[in-house]
What does this fold into?
Amino acid sequence: MEKDSNLASPQDDGAGEKLVDEKNGHNSKGIEVKYLTPSSQNGDAKIDIENLKSIQFAGMGKEELMKFASDPFWVRTRWFLFILFWLSWAAMLAGAIAIIILAPKCAPPAPRQWWEQSPLYKANVATFTKDPSKLQGDLKGFTTKLEYLSSLGVKTVVLSNILKVSDKESDGVDEFKTVAPSFGTLEDLKALISAAKDKGLKLLLTLIPNHSSLKNDLFNKSASKDPLYESFYIWAPGKGFTSEGMPAPPNNWLSKSGNSAWEWNEARKEFYLHQFDKEEPEFNFRNPKVVKFFDDVMQFWLDLGFSGFYLERTKYLIEDVELRNETAKRDIGSATHTEYDFYDHFYTENNADLEPLLHDWTERLANSSGILVVDDLSVTANRSLAHLIVRPQTLEPYPIFSAEDMFTLINKSLKANPWPAWQIKVKNEEEGSPLAQCVLLSSMLLPGVPVTLAGQELGLSNLQEIPWDNTTYPESQESDVISQQNNPHSLYTAYKELVEARNSPQILHGSLQLHIFNGTSVFAYTRIKSGNPGYLVVFNTGTEETTVDVRQMNGVPDELTLVVTSDIASMDDKSKLMSEAVTLPSRAVAVFRFVPKAKE
It folds into this structure.
């Protein structure tokens, strides 16, 4: 049996004294000695020397520590390390900031051009400021109404044709660089342009380059075969004689009125082309001199201060060079060969040679910070041909107007052009009707440029004179400008609110989701851009009140804020509504703002 002991045996020969401290059983080197009693009885003893015990570190005393603390070497070392620490910290902070600032970011969307933001507001100078005391409006009167346009929020205004004509019922121009005296003088126009610029308005001039009047000096020179102007217009010899012995037209082309598009000129002994009135002979745009003439005309008006042009009758500018006969349509309906709608007009409309002409004009205007807008062109939606192509989109309800009609028309238009001009009309529906007003409001926040005819924002049905007050126009019955400006629920107020909303990032750059609620007549769409409030437009196209849960649409939360309605008495502007049950009367539109719900 083992037994531990720290005491020396009396029989030791003194060796233990050298190894063990008699007082505490340890030697000076901290070696522990164990005496082991042997199992045998032969008198031997066994000694086990343990490892050195750990010696505890006591550290420096205060005096020693102070001596090192005041040592110049250690003082310098501490300061060096202290400064190095803060310099390193500052360098890391600066590096982090530099990384944040200089790191590549997602490219922001290209800013929209000025003409892409505002609606295109078309105003007829003759009727815009007309009142019972005068026959027609003029440039001075138009200048007095610029404040109205500015307060409405529109930025792009198209002036109707104000060039000199001899027949007010015709748009054939006598002089392309002269203002019609009935509208005022060139000085009046300069004053209008200057005042418009002061209010941040851009003016476009309506120009009809397809034809002139018979009284235009260019036509007279061409008819007399002046060498410089001989081929300025479309001329062709007759093709035989009629049964009455008169020269027969060169082909079967018809004017829009249904009569022959050719008129005999006795002085020249040839026919000239007119696809409209016979008083409106057509220019020959295959002649470079004609193109150069209109280049000069455009530059003249640009230099005066216009920001571009709205070209009308554009698709008729160039005809088939061989003057081939038109062919009949496959489905002619009840039309006969003496009617315009009987033919396809492949040789007189949308000729492929229009493309280089329009491309050059668009480029020329872009270089002058101007824009080119053309009407009813169907060759392509390519923006290189024009900044905007205004081709009214017509809804043809069958059997009745539906949400599907709106969805299909908008989807088709956006596939052809991601930023189109919107001028949606319902066939056989009078302008200013409740349905027409709903269509107008529902199109205001779509990607693209809404086209507004002066008076539509007031719900006018005939788009004639603007009733500025109910004193001058007592029959206006609260549809006059002053009454609507003072009515927070008027169409004018709703239109103005949506024009302002068009300047927001979610309308200019946001995503679009079109939606039809199953089993209903309700069409809707949202405009959403990260970091901005979303917009929801809901249009009940049906004839009965309908309730829908708009949460079916992506990003729509439980609560909505009403922005405007098409005069829905049960809804108050800026009120909060629950999105699970939005109720709309028949033929009504409501526009909401909301905080987009995060994607789950």
Remarks:
- Residues 1-26 have pLDDT under 50 and may be disordered.
- The two ends are 77 Å apart (CA to CA).
